[in-house]
Structure formats: structure tokens, C-alpha cells
Amino acid sequence: MTIEISEVLTNKQLKEFVKFPLELFKNNQYYVPQLLRDEIETFKPTKNPAFEVCEVKLFLAHYNKDIVGRIAAILNKPANKKYNTKHIRFGWFDTINDFDIASALFQKAEDWGRNLGMKEITGPHGFCDLDPQGLLIEGFDKLPTIASYYHYPYYQKLLEQYGFEKEIDFVEYSSTPPYDTGIPDNLLKMNDWIKKRYNYRIAEYDSIREYKKHAKELFSLLEDTFIENYGTVPLTEKQVHYYINKYISFINKELVKFVFNENNEMVGFLVSMPSLSKAFQKAKGRLFPFGIFHILKGLKTYETIDFLFAGVKKEYRGKGVDTVMVLEIVKSAMKLGFKYAESNQELENNTKVQREWKFFNPVLHKRRRIYIKKL
Predict the structure, then answer these.
(1) Calpha distance 112→98 (Å, rounded)
(2) 206 versus 57: which is more confidently predicted?
């Protein structure tokens, strides 16, 4: 078997790189394709400001002229500096079920890492923790959110056969709003008491534009919140604007909660949105001509609510901000008639966040793993 690994150097090859999963997961009912336009822009230095602090190599695997695998190798300089590591990252890894092909792809990424003086390879990662990360190892019969990827079960076997070991897991929960019992009175009373005790104000704006004005403050707080957590990477100002523009168009103002103190300083935020997974499936990776209509309809289909990210200012932790935000979101979700809620990824050891779900019938239904291997 002759496997050819080639570096992606042309626009044609880049299109082949981002389109490969469409063929690999064709007819899979759980695969959610990303928008091809967004995926292409992710790897364009003129579009993605991560290229100012990262280096990237993309590789395709061919067998008999057919594309049978892909991988991205990423040198994230801020991450290595922050954690005092010499890591090369891998991401966007997809392949048919063949160990030789998987090995050839990983070897190509490793060779580049060694040439740069790196000592370990870790992933799946994106450029930063706001990109999809982690290999799906549980929940293959569940629909992923648009903030994550689907993988076949054989991926795990290929990685571990190659020598990768677990670094850490992310878990994902599904829950249901308490329509039958209602939100417990003691929680509602606690919510009111906390807001009065600390003079918290929940922002209520008439338009998304007003929320967007606080987006930079939000990302500053996000970085402050997770600076000590695994895998978080400092973002440049350009990256902050990049992610603001990437996510802001999808949010529903009733599903965003900003908490301010008496000095009008943001002390917490929780951003959620209607699930667009089914809409993205119908769009089949294309925004035009019809994908945009599926997405706009999905934004008004209140079946599943996806939690994107949340944060609390350090000095306000333990002062009920997280409780207030969760209860306010639950009230909004019930008002709109959502049936389910997706937590998105949480570190397996983040018990503080997981405790917030305990009142809403949480079920751990997906798990994703970050792997590591010495070069």
C-alpha cells in the first residue's frame, strides 16, 4: 500500500482539506458539517489573526489519488510560553479506518514539530480553546453542537495504537428544564436574595447591537476566568474581535445574561443560543444559496439550547453570580419553550460548574479526550 502525504499549499488543496469530512461522514446521521466558508477562513492568514502568533502546517493523505485523511499541525507560541512547554498541537484530524494512514499523518506532524524543537505532540486542539477540541470517545449516537466535531469510534483505537495517552477529558451534559415541577421556590428566593445582597443588575437590552458593545469586556472577563484552566490561551485584541464577529450573529438576546455590579462593571456573563446542529446538517456546509435559510429558521427553533461559554470575575466567585445567571437562563429557556439543554464541553474535574446542573436532571452523554505523546 503506497500512501502519499502532501502539504496543503494551494487554494485547491485547502478546499479539498476542508471538504474531506463531507465525504468521510456522508450519510452519517450524527455528523454536523461546519460551514465550508468559515473553515477555509480559519486557515487563511489574512482572515484568522491566530496566524500572528501561531504557525500551521496542513497535510493530506492520498491513496490511489483518493484523499483518505487529513491533519493540521499547529505551533501555538503563546500556549507554550504560558505553560512552559514545547508542544506541537494537532487538530482537524480525520481518516478512514486504517492505521498506516493515521500513522503517516501523525509522523508528518511529529517531524515538523521535531524540526521546531518541540518535545511532545498533543490534541486534538484548535488554535485556541474557543475552537473545537477533544476527540469524541463517548456519545457516538448523539448530535454534536456546532462548537464541536463528530468522530468515528475507531479514531480512539488509532490514536492509542499509535502511542497517544490521555491528558485530560471534557464532559458534556444534557438536561431538561423543570416544566413538571417548576423551578424550586427556595432557588427563586435565593436568586432574589443574592441580587439584592450584592446589588447585581441583569442587563436587558433591546438589540444584539447593545450586547455587542460589551463583547470586548466579555472576552477580557472570559480570559480572566479561565486563565488557570487547562488549555486556555491568551488572545490578542485582533483574535478577540475575530471571535466576537464569529459568534455574535448567532446569539438570541434573551439567551445572553450579563451581570453588572453597582458600579456598572461586568462581573459575570453566560452566553447560550438555540442549537443549530440540525440546521447545519441541512445546510451541508454551504451558506448559499439555501443554507442561510436553514440557519435563520434554526435560530427560531426553540427545541435545544446550547450553552457556549460563561465567566465570573475572580473577586465575585462564591458570591452567587453563577447561580443568578443559570436561573435567569433557565427562566428564559422555559419562557421560550426549550425542551433540552446542552452544556457543551466542561473539564471533567470542573465540579463547581457541574454542580450548577444538578437541579435540571443532568445526564452525562458525551466525553471528549485530549491526548499527548512524546516525540
Answers:
(1) 22
(2) 57
